Amino acid sequence: MSLRSNVLDLRKRKREVQKGGGDKAIEKQAKMGKLTARERILALLDKNSFHEYDLFVEHSAKDFGMESKVLHGDGVIIGTGTIYSKPVCIFAQDFTVAGGSLGLMHARKITKIMDHALKMRVPLIGINDSGGARIQEGVNSLAGYGEIFFRNTLASGVIPQISVILGPCAGGAVYSPALTDFVFVVENISKMFITGPSVIKSVLGEEISMEELGGARVHAELTGNAHFFATSELDCFEQIKKLISYIPRNNGTKAMPFPPKLPKKGRKIEDIVPGDPRIPYDIRDIIGGITDSSEFFEVMENFAPNIVIGFGRMEGDTVGFVANQPMVLAGVLDTDSSDKAARFIRYCDAFNIPIVTLEDLPGYLPGVDQEHAGVIRHGAKILYAYSEATVPKVTVILRKAYGGGYIAMNSRHLRADFVFAWPTAEIAVMGPEGAANIVFRKEIAEAENPEEMRQQKIQEYKEKFANPYVAAAQGYIDEVIEPRDTRGRILHALQVSENKSVFLPNKKHGIPPF
Amino acid sequence: MSEEKEFKTLVVQGAVYKTHYTWKFENRVNWEAPDPNHIYSFIPGTIIDIFVKPKEKVKEGQTLLLLEAMKMQNQVRMPFDGEIVKIHVKKDDVIPRKFLMLEIRPVRIKK
Q: Name one Pfam family in it (chain A) (predicted).
């Protein structure tokens, strides 16, 4: 054979294997409204940047007639490429090959690219589209999952790990995405659950569709398992690229800087916030009045929307925002919002992203359901996360900062680096209504007209304590600022904090309340 | 102003806030004090067998019925000496969690 014919033979072999499960299976995949694994990778990565490895890997199963079956690439594609010219490692399960089921060699390919990603300190993107464990391979497929979970944990906080659910992801398989930093789901395509509808029906008699049980919306709104929701695969890839632009490649670097830009004109934040602390507004309008080009990339937009988290840029550098949302549940902290914010804070801390906290909340959500759902241990997560974080931490108190909520939202006491307050800030142990009822209980009860007395005492308390100056007098607030100076003050604070260095007690790791 | 009309109210420590609710908040289950005379299913499952009849006097610890769930046959027992008031399930019924299966009442049983 000449070199030329060898090359032609290689090309022929590649073409054969790259077809995955073949034309019929690819047609079926398209009918389900899904791209193939290869199309997905090519759509996500920079043009001509993808390089595939382990193309010729074959499965090693010998039982149940598997020895005579050929599974191209063993149902998964792995490789490296670039997004915005920065390297990433990627794997995509190929549903057209044996339903993307996970066997020993399939798992070995995934763990190979995971090991690469960790060693080379580049982000890992995993596209999940799999029927689950390959039953014919028995315990070997379980071993495969375990090896993946272990690597997810090892890489956690070192490199960004992104999971994209583009098909079923059921049973043990769901735990790999759950261990990663960000999970992307697509309407009508993503399905995640531990036990499927048929098992639930046969064992428990509950009837539910796959979509209602573990569809994209369920995970984006209800469970909090997903961080980004898209209506199409291509939209989803745009979101992933955007996320990649905001985060650093690994925990030893910073996110890539962008050209500094001013917020859009006409975004006057001093006109957005109503004077009455009981009237809501959209906190995202304030964020938009602070960030470069007024851009804000929200994370977990539909889950626990009473707290808003996400990324923006200030003078070109990535900043993580954590902000109470008065528009939803008055911006209270509860089990879900504490969990949501705490994880985001830990993400920012692990990846050198400064945190800006915008505060306006009446406290924790009251209710039996909250208490019984463990609001104590969930609420503790946010305290833990803020206290532990050593990245620059800046807080701006816009209006209410009452009680436990005040402490939790990156207060001076949890080692915020800078705490600013607007003149409208009310920093107190509770709101005037509640406080007056307790402090002046006797006067109100004994008054001729108790309601009149109550209102009078509320007003009295308001004037005396519902302001930023009591806290400022203690040095708990560094500066009372004019709303229009907010961006400038945050920028200066971040600039000053650039070389922040904090020493924590030496320990193996803490024991956060999860 | 039209938008403001859509706001709901949330009371936190005496103050009434205008705001939107979440789906979860609107669908939260209001807590009720448990009634010791009502026996609910603690897991969804199938009624395999019922061993008692209405008006029957039953001693504490006696098995009332079998509820099969997750391939386990769970014996539902009498929590105290008493009488069966009403039975809301029958053999082979498939019931959800927190389903009222039996109503009972305490009665002193002579030894």
A: Carboxyl_trans
